[in-house]
Amino acid sequence: MSNQQSTPGAAPARPGEPPATRRPRPARAAAVLCGLAAAAAAVGAGEAVAAFVRPSAAPVVAVGSAAIDLAPTALKEYAVRTFGTGDKPVLLAGIHLTLALLAAATGLAATRHRPVGAAVFALFGALGAWAALSRPGAGPADALPAPAAALAGALALDRLTALLRRTTAPSPPPPEDPDSPEGPGSPDGPDAAESPGAAPRPRRRTVLAAGGATIAAATALGAGGRILSDRRNDITAARAAVRLPPPARPAPPPPPALRIPGLAPTTTPTADFYRVDTALTLPRIDPRRWSLRLHGMVDRPLLIGFDELLALPLEELDHTLTCVSNEVGGPYAGTTRWLGASLPALLRRAGIRAGAQQLVGRSQDGMTIGTPLEAVLDGRRALLAVAMNGEALPVEHGFPCRTVVPGLYGYTSATKWLVDLEATTFAAFDPYWVQRGWDRTGEVRTASRIEVPAPFARVPAGEVVLAGTAWATHRGIAAVEVRVDGGPWQQTRLAADAGPDVWRQWTHTWAGAAPGTHRIEVRATDAAGAVQPETRRPPYPSGATGWHSTVVTVT
Ligand SMILES: Nc1nc2c(c(=O)[nH]1)N[C@H]1C(S)=C(S)[C@@H](COP(=O)(O)O)O[C@H]1N2
Ligand SMILES: [Mo]
Question: Which atom of ligand 1 is nearest to the CA of 278?
Fold first, then answer.
């Protein structure tokens, strides 16, 4: 291929025509490829170096984590609402797409103005290093992957664009003899016309090959880095080796549940348990190196290891955990049998000083969650949990240890990957979500959900089975009512009471359902007698309110 072919900007020339005097511009597509290849080199090098530091220091991860922390609450809410547990893959895809667009633009710009490439990559190196250093628990080494990435990217871009520029370097002066068979316009013109001693002008195909090779090498480097990093941080065996002692205080067997197709089971299978957190890379904590520090406004600060924790009397607790971001009728609630050491007992051992108001849990990845001490110490069954449903905590649910405090949303009670507990005052410290305007207490609001029939289901006329779940964690559910098309409220039948800390299934047979479209509404009453309010409020800042409704078509 020669540059006389139909590449944009390169004027076609034919034998006998005067040669183009305008310097042809390199093809856009090739310039874009140079940019993309350089970005790939940067990302690959960043991953590779991060493998020797820690996974969260990889520039893309660090920038993504910083973006999560800096994102306005409304955007976070939107992400959780729209993408749910898939919010992180969506964020990473967004970052990679943004990078690709910027890389393409940088490739185009750097092909014309050489210094642009170095400048852009220097800027990104600085941004990545800043993001990595700003992560909680970051050490100086965390700053290394980003500059390495920037250097690899800048070098790759410089080499590739230099190659690309040479494909369109100005032609040497045309030979005097216009009839010369080797004239500038002949098919082999540009290459054949190279003056003796000058390096042969590369063909565009060479640039494409070099770009492709760069991408392939970068992918291999990045994948290698990932594999190495996963290997270095693999705790599968350590988790499998955890031997859970039998509970000193077992939970009673759960009472019989309602079995209705489509109705959530009373115990949520761990694989289906919702996950909500800010962790772009999961903290992987080896329990043999884990310890929990309890300090602050206590008489006797404590430091306990995992074996010591397991040696404490362990309690089982059936408890429904729910997220403040759950919309009316939403899926972010789950019930499991937690196993853990008593948190109030540990606090008593340390001796909480008068005046302490909140217990701040810190996770290994720097999350801070503040729990009102009044709630922890009022007699409820708060736990330092090590297991759910009879198995060591899954990594995504906080292995090796998390807090569980019934009655409070996860964001004020359920620190995953817990490493530190500090007794303090409210004035002394605002935890992560409180800094972002969320309510300090996070008491779970009464919620009820219609699960059967599914929204927009078509059901035959006559008797229609309605069913769902309701929770008012730690207060308990006293009643659940439903109504059809705004008619009178009907009491539903509740499943046996399994205690105030777990949700309660309900069911009702709607007799005489006539063909047409109908709206079903549900509301619950907690054990204190408070009826769920009708007013619709969004989750921010203290949990959603309003009645869940569903539309069904009776045929
Ligand atoms: N370390 C850490 N712990 C955390 C969070 C987090 O982002 N980081 N999110 C909290 C929130 S908002 C909720 S609702 C629960 C969710 O716990 P799960 O993912 O095990 O369901 O964890 C809580 N604990
Ligand atoms: Mo949450």
Answer: 7
